Amino acid sequence: MANHKTRLAVFCSGTGSNFQSLYHALKERNIPAEFTLCLSNRPECGAFSFADQHAIPTVHLSEKQFDTHGAFAAAMLKALDEHAVEYILLAGYLRKVPESVVNAYAGKTLNIHPALLPKFGGPGMYGINVHKAVLEAGEKESGATVHFVDPEYDKGPVLLQHKVPVKPGDTPESLASRVLDCEHQLYPDALELLIRGTEL
Ligand code: GAR
C-alpha cells in the first residue's frame, strides 16, 4: 500500500535508550514505520517520558493489576489490537511476554539481548547480571543479539549479532556501556532489515 507505515509497539521497563535509538533511526534512515504504542510494566520509566515527549501513546500494564495471567495477556492483546500494532520490539522489557501474545505475533516480535546468544541468556539473565556473568566466565568477547521471540526465553532465531571485545580491567558497568553503544547500532539495523526485508 502506498505510504503505509508499518505500525510498531515497543515494550520497555527502564531507561528506553534502545527505544530512543530506534525512534531516531526511523527518521534518519527514512524507514517506513512508526511507533504507535509504548508499553511498560513500570509507569515511571524513562521510556514513557520519551514517548510522551513524542506523542506516542503509552500503556502501563503489569501482571499485578490482574487477578489471572489470562486476564493480563488478554489486556495486552487488546492494547495491541486497539493500536493496530503489526510488529513488537522488546527494548529492555524485563518481563516474559505471555505466550498467547508471542503466538499472536509469531515472527513479528524482536528482542535485543546484551550478550552473544545462545550464551548468557535465559531466566535471570538481564541487564547488569548478564555482564557480571560474562566477566565471571572470563570471556574475551561479548556483544549484542537481536532475535525473534518465541515461547522459550532468549531462544528464538537470531536475526543479527555483533561482537565487542571484553577489555582488561572491565567492570560490569564498563562492559555494559560498550555493549549498549553496540545495541544502539544493531537494533536499528535489525529493524531496517525487518521492515525493508533486504540485506544491509
Ligand atoms: C539493554 O542493555 C537491553 O539489551 C537489556 O536491557 C537494557 C535496556 O536498556 N535487555 C535485557 O537484558 C533483556 N534480557 P535501555 O532501557 O536503555 O534500552
Automatic annotation (TrEMBL):
(6R)-10-formyltetrahydrofolate binds at residue 111. Pathway: Purine metabolism; IMP biosynthesis via de novo pathway; N(2)-formyl-N(1)-(5-phospho-D-ribosyl)glycinamide from N(1)-(5-phospho-D-ribosyl)glycinamide (10-formyl THF route): step 1/1. GO terms for molecular function: phosphoribosylglycinamide formyltransferase activity. Pfam families: Formyl_trans_N (PF00551). The keyword Chloroplast does not apply. One of its GO terms (cellular component) is cytoplasm. Residues 7-191 form the Formyl transferase N-terminal domain. The keyword Transmembrane does not apply. Keywords: Purine biosynthesis, Transferase. It catalyses: N(1)-(5-phospho-beta-D-ribosyl)glycinamide + (6R)-10-formyltetrahydrofolate = N(2)-formyl-N(1)-(5-phospho-beta-D-ribosyl)glycinamide + (6S)-5,6,7,8-tetrahydrofolate + H(+). The record marks 154 as: Raises pKa of active site His. GO terms for biological process: 'de novo' IMP biosynthetic process. Its EC number is 2.1.2.2. The active site is at residue 113. Catalyzes the transfer of a formyl group from 10-formyltetrahydrofolate to 5-phospho-ribosyl-glycinamide (GAR), producing 5-phospho-ribosyl-N-formylglycinamide (FGAR) and tetrahydrofolate. Belongs to the GART family. This is Phosphoribosylglycinamide formyltransferase. The lineage of its organism: Bacteria, Pseudomonadati, Chlorobiota, Chlorobiia, Chlorobiales. The gene is purN.
